[in-house]
């Protein structure tokens, strides 16, 4: 195990992610962890970056006992300053020049060779810097192992102990060889084993869930047909079987066959306790008459979801309360992924997997046990591709695991203008054809998100010698990594023509098919 002590940097989770890529098991704990209370002996310790200056009165500091353990330590950015601060504070100073962005590191030879930390990456290492403070001198008994043009002490190490500090961030992708440096530290210097797999993660999470929930505890969760909630549900089912209750609310704006597919994948194939609530009429009735107000559509979809889900939850709770084998429903499952966690967990923060007192709508007040539901988020440390791998591990079908993201309000924000049953059906059919052709062409995994929308304009066409005046379909397909910006996917003209022809032939009530050529920005990914 490599232990990462978190000082609150936005990149701390990336350290764990890179170690997992190297098949190394790691644990992350707040930087204030009392070392004598550790329940395991790490092979090495990484001190993360952080937003503070070691000079701040309220700056966090590690338990000084870590320097006496004889275990290798790597301090990154703030971690480097923390090491220097513990040795000799006068050497850290607020930098006169803040350094953000790319820089080049040169490994420095000491007694004729580069340090083990820079093995095979000694020359012109492109790195990413993000710091204000920097070292102005070496702490006693340290020497330099790397420099940049602006930081004479970009990397330092202790003369006799395996204590390292680096000013740059090896965990970010802007430091392409950073993973090699982390490997040099974790494997070469600490001797960590590279035997961690997603299968082991799965077993460990199952154990953690069982320990948390106890022998009789019950868990409730919503599934949407999306990747995250399905993976979570499969994991929870593996951990506690029948005591996990999944609810799928059909909001009338789901994709073609979506509810049926989720039912097969989760209930039939995996045996998950799933209730499908068909509330499509309720949702669609509430949406009637809403035009020119996408946020109102979102509110209606969100509030109606809570209303329907709450009712179902209370029903399940009542039924569950009579079961002799199980206790009350105390937990609510959520498929939060790491990128969804807006604030990085701070050094003052709680453990990464659980946060209590979460209020799911008004649900907590209404549940009979009166203490509210506690939130359980087993994917909280994972990135999307890791969640997908876990899903495969748990036996979810490849199509479900690889699915493009789908917004909570569903097709309602892809039908521009009024949402009616007929208009949703038109968009749904066109979307089905578009996605089917994309899959057939082998392009699905190259695209981040694709869908068909129905626009509000009516255009004229001739169909079967008759003039029609009907709405228009817009196709959208984008490539993105973070969904904050997106490029338009470059289909061949022949391909878009095939799609347009199929949609015109198979979907009634439309006059034309357009392809949206607007990137984000200035457009957004969804139409509304
Ligand atoms: P935009 O349209 O903002 O979309 O470029 C970025 C990403 O967010 C998704 N999205 C939503 N997801 N509820 C959701 O759950 C929403 O109201 C919502 N609006 C946009 C969108 O599908 C894309 O992946």
Question: Could you explain how this protein is built, in words?
Answer:
The protein has 528 residues and is an alpha/beta fold. The protein has helices at 12-21, 78-87, 178-189, 198-213, 227-240, 258-269, 280-287, 294-321, 363-366, 384-393, 398-401, 421-440, 493-506; strands at residues 2-6, 26-30, 44-47, 73-76, 92-107, 125-135, 142-147, 155-158, 163-166, 218-223, 244-250, 273-278, 329-333, 354-355, 374-376, 449-463, 466-479, 487-488, 512-515. Helices cover 31% and strands 23% of the residues. It has a nine-stranded mixed sheet, with helices on both faces. It has a six-stranded mixed sheet with strand order 12-11-10-13-15-14, with helices on both faces. Helix 5 (227-240) crosses helix 10 (384-393). It starts with a strand and ends in a 13-residue tail after the last strand. The site of xanthosine-5'-monophosphate has 11 residues, from loops. Its EC number is 6.3.5.2.
How much is the average pLDDT?
A: 89
Question: How far apart are the termini?
Answer: 47 Å
- Helicity level: 25-40%
Low-confidence stretches: 342-362
Give the distinct bound molecules. xanthosine-5'-monophosphate
Question: Which overall shape is indicated by the principal axes computed on the Cα atoms?
Answer: globular
Which strand order does the major sheet show? 2-1-3-4-9-8-7-5-6
Individual helix count: 13
Please tally the β strands and state the result. Answer: 19
**Major sheet size, sense and barrel closure:** 9 strands, mixed
Oligomer: single chain
Tell me the radius of gyration. Answer: 27 Å
């Amino acid at each position: 195990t490599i232990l990462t002590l978190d000082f609150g940097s936005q990149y701390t989770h990336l350290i764990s992610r890179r170690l997992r890529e190297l098949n190394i098991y790691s644990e992350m704990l707040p930087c204030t962890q009392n070392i004598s209370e550790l329940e395991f002996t790490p092979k090495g310790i990484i001190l993360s970056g952080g937003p503070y200056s070691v000079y701040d009165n309220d700056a966090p500091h590690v338990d000084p006992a870590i320097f006496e353990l004889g275990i290798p330590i790597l301090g990154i950015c703030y971690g480097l300053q923390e090491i220097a601060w513990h040795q000799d504070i006068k050497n850290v100073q607020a930098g006169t020049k803040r350094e953000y962005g790319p820089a080049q590191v040169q490994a420095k030879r000491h007694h004729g060779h580069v340090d083990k930390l820079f093995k095979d990456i000694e020359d012109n290492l492109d790195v990413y810097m993000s710091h204000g403070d920097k070292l102005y001198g070496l702490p006693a008994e340290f020497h330099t192992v790397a420099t940049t043009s602006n930081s004479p002490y970009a990397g330092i190490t202790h003369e006799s102990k395996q204590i390292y500090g680096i000013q740059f961030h090896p965990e970010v992708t802007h430091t392409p060889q950073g993973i090699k440096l982390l490997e040099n530290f974790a494997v070469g210097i600490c001797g960590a084993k590279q035997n961690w797999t997603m299968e082991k993660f799965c077993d460990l999470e199952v154990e953690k869930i069982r320990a948390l929930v106890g022998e009789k505890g019950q868990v409730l969760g919503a599934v949407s047909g999306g990747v995250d909630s399905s993976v979570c549900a499969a994991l929870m089912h593996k951990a506690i079987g029948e005591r996990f209750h999944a609810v799928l609310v059909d909001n009338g704006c789901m994709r073609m066959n979506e509810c049926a597919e989720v039912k097969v994948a989760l209930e039939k194939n995996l045996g998950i306790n799933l209730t499908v609530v068909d509330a499509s009429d309720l949702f669609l009735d509430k949406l009637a008459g809403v035009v020119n107000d996408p946020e109102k559509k979102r509110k209606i979809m969100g509030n109606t979801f809570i209303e329907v889900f709450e009712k179902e939850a209370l029903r399940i709770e009542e039924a569950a309360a009579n079961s002799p084998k199980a206790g009350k429903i105390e937990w609510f499952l959520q498929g939060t992924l790491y990128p969804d966690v807006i604030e990085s967990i701070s050094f003052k923060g709680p453990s990464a997997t659980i946060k209590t007192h979460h209020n799911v709508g008004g649900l907590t007040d209404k549940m009979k046990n009166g203490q509210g539901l506690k939130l359980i988020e087993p994917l909280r440390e994972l990135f999307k591709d890791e969640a997908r791998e876990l899903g495969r591990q748990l036996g979810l079908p490849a199509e479900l695991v690889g699915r493009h993201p789908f917004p909570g309000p569903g097709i309602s924000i892809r039908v521009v203008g009024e949402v009616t049953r007929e208009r949703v059906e038109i968009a749904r059919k066109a979307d089905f054809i578009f996605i089917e052709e994309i899959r057939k062409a082998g392009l699905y995994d190259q695209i981040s998100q694709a869908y068909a929308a129905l626009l509000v304009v009516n255009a004229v066409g001739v169909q079967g010698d008759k003039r029609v005046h009907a709405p228009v379909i817009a196709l959208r397909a984008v490539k993105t990594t973070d969904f904050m910006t997106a490029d338009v996917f470059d289909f061949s003209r022949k391909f878009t023509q095939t799609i347009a022809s199929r949609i015109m032939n198979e979907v009634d009530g439309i006059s034309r098919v357009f392809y949206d050529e607007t990137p984000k920005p200035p457009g957004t990914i969804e139409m509304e």
